[in-house]
Amino acid sequence: MREQRDASPALLDRREAIAELGDALRDLVEQAVTTEVPADQLRQVTADLRRAARPLTTHEREVTRIPSADDLLGGVRMYNPVTGVGSALAPPLRIDLVDGVAVGACTLGPAFEGPPRYAHGGVSAQLLDQLLGYVASARGNAGMTVRLDTRYRAPIPLRTPLHLMARVTAVNGRKTTAHGVIATAAHPDDLLVEATGVFVAPRPEQSWRLFGAAPYWEADNPSVEYD
Fold it and tell me: Is the pTM of this model over 0.85?
């Protein structure tokens, strides 16, 4: 997560608590997809989980409202399904910007399995879509994905640290093109998956139609996170 700008102690504490819950949920998901316990134990755990989750329903946000812990202009998205530390769906992917290049790292567990022992191909595309959009945004050209061309060279192994990289290759008005790759951290030169993405910043009228507001990436802030 990027440096958290002007966050109050209470907000920082809430974000920490969200991240702790996210860690626990990811552990639960991995345990759930690898367990071989009998059916009666599965049903007991199910009942326990439903009871444990009940307090979370007492104060829910509307889907049209941004989470209170998020900061769009600051690049804080706690529940992003790829990078969000509060999301049970995210690996999560960690991204740094190094000399204009987005460098990512994550490890995919059994919850992301497609072919036995390897990640689902759609997960590879999801990771690269996020990374390509991130680097476009970080270079001051945030937009929405309009095309993602993915080439699969070899399957991505599970429970193996991954190394991802992406860079902007062209900018033409509202359209930005970026290219990225996935490899293992142990063998970063042996490419497993690569993709080229095209991202277009919507016009103000499109943003009002889609989101009911002007796009937050129109702000003059190159650190705004892409989603």
Answer: yes
